[in-house]
Amino acid sequence: MSTQSGSNERFAQFKLVLLGESAVGKSSIVHRFVKNTFDDLRESTIGAAFLTQQITIPETQTTIKFEIWDTAGQERYKSLAPMYYRNANAALCVFDITNKSSFAKAQDWIKELKKQAPEGIVIAIVGNKSDLNDEREVEQEEIENYIQEQKSEGYDIINAECSAKTGDGVLTIFDKIGRALPVDEVIESNKSRQGGGISNRRTGGVDLSRPRRQQAGQTNSCC
Q: Which PANTHER family does this entry report, sorted A to Z (predicted)?
């Protein structure tokens, strides 16, 4: 992670990884967040894909840049996952709300992160395909019970749902992650090491208030 700060604005950079079973929609979530697009025919990720995007937390005048690693969900690529969540600051464990087994798989990823990921990593469990609520197999009560169970063990896991197809809830997830990251600690630590050096070079970003519109011709949720 790295940070920069100016007189009134702050900038922080964090590594984020997406984990989950194949076809739950990890890549679709990332592309909706980064490019505001959705593709029904998106092919499965091979190995991992890397993208970046920024958000702004207006209350604290902080811009957060996410370095996003979208990992493959196929079992044959599972052994590669530690390469991507190693040194990660945040992880999204994604499941498909219409597929109960994918929820169990997301929980398995969280178990692995708790054992092997860096201490203090921000973890979110994310249910995708909320546009298919009528086909839901994973009930809200089941998710909430899991979150409470984790909380009783000392793990405060973010719970969120979204639809990569419509865009609903996608930006909210990354906003929640950004607000949970230790931005203040990192900025102060880096200012101490760098002697308070100032740099405000930034490009792009996401307007968290922008309206979400479904792309023309979209029919089904994809992987």
A: PTHR47978
pLDDT > 60? residue 178: yes
- Do 96 and 102 contact (CB within 8 A), yes or no? yes
Cα 81 to Cα 64: distance, rounded to the nearest angstrom: 24
Note the pLDDT tens digit of each residue in 45-87.
545 688 999 999 999 899 999 999 998 655 555 677 788 788 9
Q: How far is CA 97 from the centre of its chain?
A: 17
Return d(Cα 85, Cα 15) in angstroms, integer: 9
Domain 2-194 class?
alpha beta
Of residues 214 and 12, the one with the higher pLDDT is: 12
